[in-house]
């Protein structure tokens, strides 16, 4: 009932917008739209600053599903000076190839898998921004992420709801952005958060920027910073 995120026209539009940001013609890109002026996502920035303080001044981010560095380019002007800064995006193969060819820099890199990014260096935080709800098997994916034992997990723009079960819908992208549709999950809050109950504590929960409209009903989105308690107990 939907086309999916791997439609080729999506990559071409995102790449064109990302190049405009790279060349200083636009401030940042979101969903292939290039914005002329900087906008700071303050709750997301505050969560990353907390990670840097807790990790001895390091902010080594694994940005899973990070497109062509959308969040990196948006936050880059506002990131504090840290001892070590790295932003590693894990994406679909076509996005990785485009990122490596056109956008890789001293701090921004692209990898096809989490394992490949891990082999490059360790990470202080795994960022999952507007991504888990678009995966075919999101709960299995979260279990895989937990096995990686990241010191921090940062979830952003996550649609949580209080109904008794997860709900899957089809999201239709406005045609002026690009012609596409995606399957998207709305997660039952308690079930989703139960993944983290054993080995994580909630450091910060905040209202994310995305708003979802489903059959006339409005769903807000949530941001959550989680710290691995095993890591904390050893520090």
Tell me what the structure shows.
The chain has a single domain (38-234), classed as Rossmann fold (3-Layer(aba) Sandwich). A seven-stranded mixed beta sheet has the order 5-4-3-6-7-12-11. The protein has a three-stranded mixed beta sheet with strand order 8-10-9. Strands 1-2 form a two-stranded antiparallel sheet. Helices cover 31% and strands 34% of the residues. The relative contact order is 0.16. It is of the alpha/beta class and 235 residues long. The protein is built from eight helices and twelve strands. The N and C termini lie far apart (48 Å). The chain has helices at residues 8-22, 42-54, 70-75, 93-102, 114-120, 138-147, 189-194, 229-234; strands at 28-30, 33-35, 58-64, 84-90, 108-111, 125-129, 152-158, 160-161, 167-172, 181-188, 200-214, 217-228. The protein is globular, with a radius of gyration of 17 Å.
Which tags fit this structure?
single chain, 235 residues, 12 strands
Q: Could you tell me the mean pLDDT?
A: 91
Structural class: alpha/beta
Largest sheet: 7 strands, mixed
- Strand order in the largest sheet: 5-4-3-6-7-12-11
CATH superfamily: Vaccinia Virus protein VP39
N/C terminus separation: 48 Å
Question: What would CATH call the class?
Answer: Alpha Beta
Q: Helical residue percent?
A: 25-40%
Number of domain units = 1
Strands, total number: 12
Radius of gyration: 17 Å
Helix-strand string: HEEHEHEHEHEHEEEEHEEH
Approximate strand percentage? 25-35%
Low-pLDDT residue intervals, each spanning 5 or more residues: 231-235
């Amino acid at each position: 009932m939907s086309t999916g995120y791997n439609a080729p026209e999506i990559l071409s539009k995102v790449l064109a917008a990302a190049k405009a940001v790279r060349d200083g013609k636009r401030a940042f890109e979101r969903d292939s739209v290039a914005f002329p002026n900087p906008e700071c996502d303050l709750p997301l920035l505050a969560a990353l600053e907390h990670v840097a303080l807790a990790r001895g001044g390091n902010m080594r981010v694994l940005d899973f599903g990070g497109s062509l560095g959308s969040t990196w380019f948006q936050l880059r002007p506002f990131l504090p000076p840290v001892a070590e800064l790295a932003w590693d995006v894990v994406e679909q193969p076509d996005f990785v190839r485009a990122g490596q060819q056109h956008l890789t820099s001293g701090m921004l890199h692209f990898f096809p898998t989490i394992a490949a990014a891990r082999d490059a260096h360790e990470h202080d935080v795994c960022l999952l921004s507007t991504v888990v709800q678009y995966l075919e098997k999101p709960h299995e994916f979260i279990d895989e992420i937990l096995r990686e034992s990241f010191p921090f997990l940062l979830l952003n723009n996550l649609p949580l709801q209080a109904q008794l079960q997860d709900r899957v819908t089809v999201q239709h992208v406005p045609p002026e952005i690009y012609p596409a549709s995606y399957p998207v999950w709305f997660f039952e809050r308690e079930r989703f958060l139960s993944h983290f109950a054993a080995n994580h504590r909630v450091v910060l929960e905040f209202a994310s920027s995305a708003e979802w409209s489903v059959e006339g009903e409005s769903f807000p989105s949530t941001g959550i910073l989680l710290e691995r308690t095993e890591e904390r107990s050893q520090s």
